[in-house]
Amino acid sequence: MTLDGGLTAGRLTNIDAVAQVRESIISSGPGAGMRAIDVQVWDGVACRIYPDRGLDIGQAWYRGVPLAWISQIGEAGPLHDLQGADWSTAFGGGLMTTCGLRNVGAPSEGHGLHGTYSHLPAADDTVERTLSDAGGTVTVRGVIDDPEPPAHFRVERTITFSIGTGRVEVEDVAANLGHEKAPAPLLYHLNFGYPLWAPPARLEIPVASTTARDTASEVALDTWHLPPDVAEQAERVLEHDLGPDLEWGNARISNPDLGIEVTIGWDRTSLPRLNQWLDPNPGMSVLGVEPANCSTRGRAFDRAAGIMPFLGPMERRVTRVCIEAGGM
Predict the structure, then answer these.
(1) Which H or E run contains 96?
(2) Which of 51, 70, 271, 281 pairs as cysteine with 35 (C-beta 3.0–4.6 A)?
(3) pTM, entire model
(4) Rounded distance, CA 48 to CA 114, Å?
(5) Mean pLDDT for each consecutive 10-residue tract of the chain (328 residues)?
């Protein structure tokens, strides 16, 4: 790989010059005491990762432009007792918040909103950097355990940053280490905000059809591809059907004023569904792109509809999501 008009890997005396990683402990605010990993790569996406929140990703930048939506809560430590809608009280937004594996969506069957995953710590987390003339990567790995009976879920997460490109890949290998078949819903809450998601930005998804979650969401059926006007209105949640022919899902956010576009890709063999979240309220202005294997209505709804995703004893499931930023 040739870097910056002739600088090659063999000319580097320290990989920090093109791929810097800093591990720290947050010292103040609601996230005090929480671990953080900051990754910054040459001509790539810079991200803040939280090992104590399941290796989820907080703020992200590309060429100095913020990509992710950050809530008013911001960085917050994990909760240890998640009931009802408690999950939302520590939802900081960020580029990726993982929902599952006990529940996704509305509280259901004794499980709270969006499950427990993003409040579980990663163990055995490591960072590896590689560089050669053929390319370079920064790879963050960790193991997230949720041992609550009857299922013992384990997720092996790998996040890979490509040096010299704006590509970030997340691969999760989820396993049920228990002795009983168990529901295992999963949704990746990918959150984008100002200034990326602001006029004249546009969202492109190759949809076959779109369904509104409720009456309040129907207002977005014809305008989901554009940032809504800021107004005190109900949030909108849509589900897009991409049809049966696409094995790899694709969504693209472009903002010509910034000269940046962000492409989201996911493996539809394990994440066949796609939800979109729009909140036009002042202080929100958020776009959520949410690949999933389930609905957002909770376990009971999916069970009754016969669409509940399960993991059997010792069964493994691989899910992949890719986020790539670049110039227009």
Answers:
(1) strand 96-100
(2) 51
(3) 0.95
(4) 22
(5) 48 87 96 97 96 98 96 95 94 97 96 97 96 86 94 97 95 96 97 97 97 95 95 95 92 98 98 97 94 96 96 97 96
